[in-house]
Each structure stands twice: as structure tokens, then as C-alpha cells.
Write a structure and sequence with these properties.
Strand order of the largest sheet: 1-2
Order of helices and strands: HEE
Distance between the termini: 46 Å
Structural class: alpha+beta
Number of strands: 2
Low-confidence stretches: none
Number of domains: 1
Largest sheet: 2 strands, antiparallel
Strand content: 25-35%
Helix content: 40-55%
């Protein structure tokens, strides 16, 4: 296993994930707000990363403030 290659590939994956996820979440929140479906309370979010080949699963829960 090449540590440098692994690190570079993992960083690229996480950057792509972060940028795309942020764009999709912002779009969904703006859409809900324009349709007057956005609650006044914080939004509960869950993200999961799954790598089936090595039986890896990671879940992260967070709160998104929208107002």
C-alpha cells in the first residue's frame, strides 16, 4: 500500500464529497424556503460513508442552522 497515493486519493474523495454535498444541501434548503416548507427549528442531518469492500461504515450526525 502506498501511503501517499492513499492520502491523495482520500483527500480528493473528501473534497469532492464536501463540495457536492454542500451544493446539494444548499439547493434543497433554498427550495424548501421558497416553498415555505423550511421549519423554524434547526435541521437534523445524517451522513454516511460506506466502503463495502472492507466492511467500513461511518455515520455522522449534525445539526444545520438555517435561520
Amino acid at each position: 500500500m502506498d501511503e501517499e497515493t492513499l492520502n491523495r486519493s482520500l483527500r480528493r474523495f473528501l473534497k469532492t464529497l464536501g463540495v457536492n454535498a454542500q451544493r446539494e444541501i444548499e439547493t434543497a434548503i433554498r427550495s424548501a424556503a421558497s416553498a415555505q416548507r423550511l421549519p423554524d427549528s434547526p435541521l437534523k442531518a445524517t451522513a454516511e460513508i460506506h466502503i463495502p469492500e472492507i466492511d467500513f461504515r461511518f455515520e455522522l450526525n449534525a445539526v444545520i442552522q438555517s435561520s
